[in-house]
Amino acid sequence: MHKRDRADSTRPKKLRTGRLPRVGVLDILPDCDPDRLVAIPANWPDDADEAPRIIIRVKRNDRAVPGPGERILARMTRGKDGQYEARAMKILPVRSRARIGVVRIDRGKKQSAGARLLPIDRKQREMFIAGGDLNGAGDGDLVEVETMAGGRMMTPTARVKKIIGNPVSEKVISLIALHDLEIPHHFCEQALKEAENAFSPPPSAGVEREDWLHIPFLTIDPASARDHDDAVFAKQDPDMKNPGGFIVCVAIADVAAHVKTGSAMDREAFLRGNSVYFPDRVIPMLPERISNDLCSLKEGEERPALAVRMVIDSNGKRLSHSFHRVNIRIALGLSYTQAQAAFDGKPDEKAAPFLESVLLPLWRAYLAMRRARNRRAPLDLDLPERRIVLDENGLVERVFIPARLEANRLIEEMMIAANVCAARTLEEHKVPLIYRVHEPPAPEKLSALKDFLDSMDIGFSTSASVRPDHFNRIMQRQRSSGNFQQVCEMILRTQSQAEYSPQNQGHFGLNLNHYAHFTSPIRRYADLVIHRGLIRACKLGDDGLGDAEIEKLKEISEHISMTERRAMAAERQTNDRLIAVFLSSKINARFSATISGVTRSGLFVKLDETGADGFVPAFSLGRDYFVHVEAEQAMIGEKTGERFRLGDPVEVKLVEALPMAGSLRFEMLSGGDIPDNAADHHPVPRKARRGRGRKSARPGKR
To answer: Measured between alpha carbons, how far is 166 from 505 in angstroms, rounded to an integer?
Structure first.
């Protein structure tokens, strides 16, 4: 069992070795209870007895208040029973000694002579691995190593701790990000045992469920979906006072009924914060017994759910809503393409029997909600999202952009409405909650956007309070122009990053004042907390949000915001590595691309076909001396005025691919835009410069 997997025991083990010093450096276990911190000595030798568990005591007035996963300088005491306790003196930065890299045995050398480690992180130096420290690793293997003291010439040395696999021949590309970013991907035995012992229906916990088995709920998901946590239903409102109105029901898997606060599954879910999705695998927030079975809303299966019943008028305005704990049965499960075909009047054999009774009323309700959405005018940045399809070896077979259907928007709009109702209900009952917040763009970003738009003769004022519709109108006016892609890219860069917070700051992108995540408790811990809050607020059982959990909402929000960013980074890095492997056999090939970033050292480009990101150094742009002009998001030739701008279409040649780093380097083949008045071009004003590009190499020297 992995050392971290043993850390879930609530009773720290007694010391079985010699005494610890009075003051020392300790690592708090990352998966321990925040209210019962347990630590082990930092850098405990692998060949020693099991590291002693040390209870961390925290008092209200302590200056250093640590949390799970942190490293501390601590003062330790030992009780008569041999149990150590400690008080934190200082929180220290954690410097992980683990490194990920590829073993490279030089040609002509024997394995016993040792090998080089090529780190995944290009900022790290190569390391030497002695033959006796390879631990069975061979040439090309991806390994996790532990760094050791430098040898002669201070050359970094390493010892293989674990063989992850061979990146080229096995499905291990996604494992690089898991190890590199330290994303938990093994459940502790106690959590797995809890999941296996769970059953359906779950224990009542004071719950009196309503019987909604007669309602023909529908799930609409991607064809490849393995878990289904939301279902929808709509019908015409029979109330004569609401002509043309609808009753819309959104039912969400009742994860809180299976995952109790403080349980091992709950601790594991909090530690992960969310599920992580890769092209070849999913790292679930909850054990598969829960996420893919008991809490998955499968067609024909009875399932417990937490549902919201909304009444809307003919224009989509919400008139009332209420939450219910229910039992439901899914009447029909469709993919987005199946649902869209049915909405378009071409149902397949599976959907046809439900067309008039289920599908068309749902579609009409969506049309009413769409009218309300149009009035609300959220930010309309509908950017294409590429999907990677892998072959049987786990390598890229193709990359495509899935069709963006109205069936997708139907589900999105109903989920957004349910999320708003969740936030409103908790506020009305004065139950603290975790909001999903998205702040308006920062003033400095708006100023940079204004400078960029001014350079294109596009008017934009930052004097008034900026709303999403201001951006929508700019994009709409530029839709038929050659500047549309550039404007969209810059508006996207202007936006803040959404996060979780116990303080309501509204959601700028959706143009909503009250918003929380309620609809995906299988894959997001925030939603599970919201479910528990609703159970408490609406008196739907004894397993609602507790006072102790409410006191930790700030810490929970910060943690799950971090895990979300970590998951996004892992998914992005994995896609970059997969694409780099895919393109590594196409050195010197030409590609159509779009400039996606401008810096003083060169340009970032995105390939049109695969969406791969790469870098074009400034020296490959041309024979002029190029200057980075930040206000225009451009590299501009000092003598000719030739320019490369954000969003410009270009042609590039691939000159280098580093698969394990996910890095691609290109050379520019296209010429830049030459202004009509190039003959009258004046050098870029010095005050407009934000760093100088490198002068291009002479012909034949590229």
So the answer is: 46
Looking at the chain, the whole-number percentage of residues with pLDDT higher than 90 is: 53
Lowest model confidence (mean pLDDT) among 194-203, 232-241, 418-427, 691-700 = 691-700
In a domain, 21, yes or no: yes
Q: 116 and 23 in one domain?
A: no
Same domain, 88 and 103: no
Domain membership of residue 27 (yes or no) is yes
Higher pLDDT, 200 or 635: 635
Task: Please check whether residue 483 lies inside any domain of the structure.
Answer: yes
- Residue 366's Cβ-side half-sphere holds a number of Cα atoms within 13 Å equal to 21
- Domain co-membership, 362 together with 412: yes
Residues facing 436 on adjacent strands: 500
* DSSP E strand stretches across 8-97: 23-28, 38-41, 54-56, 71-78, 84-92
Cβ atoms 328, 302 nearer than 8 A: yes
Residue indicated by tokens 């069992």: 1
Beta bridge partners of 400: 387
Report the distance separating Cα 509 and Cα 506, nearest Å. Answer: 9
Q: HEC profile for 303-337?
A: EEEEEEEEEECCCCCEEEEEEEEEEEEEEEEEEHH
Of 332, 333, 334, 329, nearest to 301 by C-alpha is 329
Q: What SS3 state is found at 293?
A: helix
Q: Tell me: pLDDT of 34 over 80.
A: no
Best CA proximity match to 296, nearest among 382, 204, 229, 221: 229
User: The whole model's pTM is what?
Assistant: 0.81
Which residues face 627 on adjacent strands?
Answer: 636, 692
Res. 694: pLDDT tops 50: no
Which residues on neighbouring strands pair with residue 326, listed in sequence order? Answer: 210, 305
Query: What is the CATH number for 669?
Result: 2.40.50.140
C-alpha to C-alpha distance for 562 and 556, rounded to whole angstroms: 10
* The pLDDT of residue 152 is above 60: no
Domain range holding 626? 584-692
Residue 47: inside a domain: yes
Instruction: Tally the domains of the chain.
Output: 5
693 and 615 Cβ atoms separated by less than 8 Å: no
Q: Are residues 41 and 117 in the same domain?
A: no
Residue 3: predicted pLDDT = 38
- 405 has pLDDT over 70: yes
Same domain, 134 and 263: no
Mean pLDDT lowest for which of 26-30, 305-309, 563-567?
Answer: 26-30
* Rg of the Cα atoms in the chain: 29
Q: What is the mean pLDDT of the chain?
A: 86
| Gap between the Cα atoms of 32 and 3, Å rounded | 13
Confidence of residue 676 (pLDDT cuts 50, 70, 90): low
